[in-house]
Amino acid sequence: MAQCVADNGEAGDAVAERDGCGCWGEFEVPVGGRGFWQVGPLRLWVQRSEREWLVSWARDDDPGDGRVVVEVPSDREPPVEGVSSTHFIFRSTPARVQLLPALADRPVIVTPEAPFRLPPQEEVSLSIATPLWLLASLGEPPVVLFDQPVQRPSDTWFGPSTREGELGYAATISARWQGSDLPACGHRAVSLVRIRNWAATPLPVERIRLPAPNMSLFIAADGGLWTEAVEIEHDEEGEMASVKLEPGPPGAAVGARRLRGPRQAMTKDLLVRAFGGLFR
Q1: Is the pTM of this model over 0.85?
Q2: Beta carbons of 189 and 13 less than 8 angstroms apart
Q3: Of 43, 30, 112, 109, residue with least CA distance to 76
Q4: Cβ 184 vs Cβ 70: under 8 Å
Q5: Does the chain have fewer CB atoms within 10 Å around its N or its C terminus?
């Protein structure tokens, strides 16, 4: 049995040919067999028959659970109650399923520990914990079996009015000044964000918009998950800012390599509303 057990990013019984602690990658499930994954509070079962993949999932009540557990094959069965399931029918089922973490499918709106003002010609660097999704797929091009948040974030609106703006997710962890201040957690990635204010007036920073669908995921040598560093430059008197993703993983992610690309490509720097609150 291939088994990976990790707690707060520390490797357990690793499978060497897979990424990081062995929890991500392709797994072969025999006909009549089952695989089990737990990432934080999310539990996932996938069961294969000759013509069907059955996907079942449930969430526990403890959002602080940072465990990452993989069992393939597994004899764990889904509980009778509190489980959602989906069936996928094939002429003949593929034998291998790919499990990867993913970033959110909407922008993530992050609140600093305390709102602050950035004076003119100043810059600040923040470390932000970004919520993760779990993505299960088959084959190439991929057939997506499962694409759900590990812990469902709250919806939030980001924009200057109820008619202008966009729907995003509210981050459950506030921005911190130092990456070491972030709690270790198996179901979040770390994003380093640098904000520069080139305007002539102080910049109020109450909320920060991260372009999660445009960002990649990297895995460091210790199994920690990171995104590209984000650079946000504000150089006018309005609420618009230039958002740039630095190529590759940040230097703090030692030995990192790309685990998954963005959901949506961002071909050039964006001029967007990057800051809020915009409801006053």
Answers
A1: no
A2: no
A3: 43
A4: no
A5: C
Interatomic CA distance for residues 60 and 40, integer angstroms: 8
Residue ranges for the chain with pLDDT beneath 70: 1-22, 63-65, 160-161, 172-186, 237-239, 267-280
Distance of CA 49 to the CA centre of its chain: 30
What was the pLDDT predicted at 132? 93
pLDDT confidence of residue 67: 77
With contact defined as beta carbons under 8 Å apart, do 199 and 235 qualify? Answer: yes
Specify whether the CB–CB gap between 30 and 95 falls below 8 A. Answer: yes
Phi, psi of 223 (to 5 degrees): 90, -5
Could you report the per-residue pLDDT of 193-245, keeping only the tens digit for each?
A: 999 999 898 988 888 889 999 999 999 988 889 999 999 888 876 667 788 89
Instruction: Name the DSSP class of 229.
Output: -
From residue 176, give the alpha-carbon distance in Å to each of 104, 193, 209, 256: 20, 10, 15, 22
- How far, in Å, CA of 223 to CA of 272, rounded? 32
Closest CA to 182 of 20, 11, 9: 9
Taken in order 220, 226, 136, 94, the sign of the CA dihedral is negative
Structure tokens at 145: 């079996």
Domain segments of the chain as ranges = 2-101, 105-131+151-276
The span from the CA of 46 to the CA of 78, in Å, is 10
Tokens of 65: 């659970």
What distance in Å separates the CA atoms of residue 225 and residue 214, rounded to the nearest whole number? Answer: 16
